[in-house]
Amino acid sequence: MSSDAAKSRRSPQSEERVRDAERSGRALVDAALSEFSAKGYAGTRIQDIANRAGLNKQLISYYFGGKEGLYREIQGRSAERGKMVAETDQTLEEIALQYLDAGLRDPRYIRLALWRGLTDPAEFENADVDALEDQMLDQDVTNIERAQARGEIAADLDPGFVRLILMSIVMAPGVLPRSAHHLLGHDPGSAEFRAKYGEQVQRLIAHLQDHKPDAS
What we know:
This protein is an all-alpha fold. The protein has two domains: 65 residues, Arc Repressor Mutant, subunit A (Orthogonal Bundle), CATH 1.10.10.60; 140 residues, Tetracycline Repressor, domain 2, CATH 1.10.357. It has ten helices and no strands. α5 packs antiparallel against α10. The radius of gyration is 22 Å and the shape is globular.
């Protein structure tokens, strides 16, 4: 058998192994996101992640170097997602609604951020993730400054404060789903909630404009 023939026979197997590895990696990330967002880093066990993914727990070490590596991978993906939204050429209202859509579609990232803010010890500081998050925040502040220049946001409002308030509004349904359901009459995961909450976010942003009384 020629070497070319041998390679052609091995190639599909190699490609299948790559696909299996990609599927396994995605399954572990998804399972870990569910576990970390529900229990925090300290409360999550490797075996629970493996069980949820339906895979051997040794694969967590093989693909990610262990529980900490998997946690850092998810942190990085979350920061990258936010950075991509912030860098889009959209109005402040459109960006806020895009963040809202992402949070309502998958509140696990919001809950993970809450756990991280409350419980992450110093050893989980990640310079790469922090840099991505800082870039996202800086871009969001730039977007707010542009909105102020267009007259969409009152000039006397601090852009950083506006960003923090909008972040809180976007996170609220994922952090307080029961309260959100009670107050607005719809489950945060429903299309009805998205429509009503999104409309209120739009109205609130409109009210942030600098409305000056007409001279009489």
